[in-house]
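Thread title: Can someone regenerate the structure for this chain?

I was given the following input by a collaborator and told the matching structure tokens would be attached. They weren't. Posting the sequence so someone can regenerate them.
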Amino acid sequence: MMIKQVMQGGVSILTVVMALYCGAAVAHGKVAMEEDTCMRRLGDNSMVHLSAYQPQHEPSDQYCTEIPKEGDTFLVVDLVDQALRDIPIGIRVVKGTSEVEDETVTYLRPSYHPDGVIRGETSLDQGLYTVFITGESVPPVHYQYPLRVKMVNYANIFRASIGPLIAMLLLTLFTYKIMKSKRMQNWRSSRRS
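Best answer:
Regenerated them for you:
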């Protein structure tokens, strides 16, 4: 009877852990365009998408706002909205967060991009950067992306560790409850006799 309870409890804990893990896995998988963290929306339908690449480190990896290493970085902006392809669009990368006050490390002059893709290259050191994408229209179009280069993102670490931490706490609570149950105490005392 007690083995049956232990098995049921174990299955319950395993189910909870699997549900937490699956939820976390789906959150970083293929998501709808509107839910993509690399997508920026302005108004009802004006959208751009940023991708960053460092082929000298990881040729096939694509990044958005968390750049893992220093060095040459290729930036690709997809102009999802067709109307953005008909206005001059420029890019400014600054070290810091202020487009006006902080040091500009890369500037691509506003120009037309009929294919909907803006390509640029910059060299990034460790630190915080901001990518400003501006369109010369009325009203002006303005998007921005914060970049963290070779920095630890404690929020991501916390999100990744919360599932295993909850599972460990549930397992500890379950083990405590079993060890304090009368059946377990009776069984342990019968084993000592």
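Strands lie at 39-42, 46-53, 66-67, 71-79, 89-95, 103-111, 117-124, 127-135, 141-149.
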